[in-house]
Amino acid sequence: MKILLCITGASLVNLGLKMITHLENECDLFVILSKNAKIVLEKENSFKFNINSYKNTIFFNDDEIYQAPASGSFGIDKTIIAPCSINTLAKISNGISDTLITRAAAVSLKEQKKLILGVREMPFSAISLEQMSKLSNLGVVISPPILGSYAGFKSVEEIENFIIGKWLDLLEIKHNLYKKWS
């Protein structure tokens, strides 16, 4: 299975990077990082992203719109944008494909492949809610990083694992990051 993980410049960029560690040995993983994702990562976490830390992942830059994920013939099975900035949401919902991330999302839509958006914003504006509704009606899964209170979190790591686990569930990747409801 080929999975494309796109990480945009919204808060919680670290969750996108942690997704890599859970996905890279479970599938053929391709990652696109936006320029703003790298900036937010440095601001929120005080370190620079090191591409060499990941051995089983192929990376693309968001400004390289000519790369393989821009074509339906590349054969991506599932795409997740996590976190997904409001700017990226707006572009996707309006058919603007001016970056590799937004082009890859457009490809997912036209090829009718699974597309998941981990939209990161609070509160949502009426415009953003309208855009999410429009995309949801087209089959896009809108999955903001929201907590489930039934999980009884004891640490930030448990909260992060819950959110990542929910995204992995949507990608149909087995994990044991959080206790399922029983």
Explain what the structure shows.
One of its GO terms (molecular function) is flavin prenyltransferase activity. Keywords: Flavoprotein, FMN, Prenyltransferase, Transferase. Pfam families: Flavoprotein (PF02441). Its EC number is 2.5.1.129. By secondary structure, this protein is α/β, with parallel strands linked by helices. The chain has helices at 13-23, 35-45, 86-93, 100-110, 126-137, 156-170; strands at 2-7, 28-33, 57-61, 78-84, 114-119, 141-142. The longest helix has 15 residues, at 156-170. The two termini are 30 Å apart. It has six helices and six strands. Strand 1, helix 1 (13-23) and strand 2 (28-33) form a beta-alpha-beta unit. The model has no long low-confidence stretch (mean pLDDT 93). The protein has a single domain, classed as Flavin prenyltransferase-like (Rossmann fold). Helix 1 (13-23) crosses helix 6 (156-170). The chain has a six-stranded parallel sheet.
**Count of domains:** 1
Q: Which term fits the overall shape?
A: globular
Pattern of helices and strands:
EHEHEEHHEHEH
Distance between the ends: 30 Å
What value does the Rg take, in angstroms? 15 Å
Q: What is the tally of beta strands? A: 6
CATH class membership: Alpha Beta
Judged by helices, strands and strand pairing, the structural class is alpha/beta
Could you say what the CATH topology is called?
Rossmann fold
Report the mean per-residue pLDDT as an integer. Answer: 93
Strand numbers in spatial order across the main sheet: 3-2-1-4-5-6
Uncertain regions spanning at least 5 consecutive residues: none
- Strand % is 15-25%
Number of helices: 6
The helical percent reads 25-40%
Relevant CATH superfamily: Flavin prenyltransferase-like
Domain Flavoprotein: 1-171
Organism: Campylobacter portucalensis
Enzyme class: transferase
Protein name: UbiX family flavin prenyltransferase
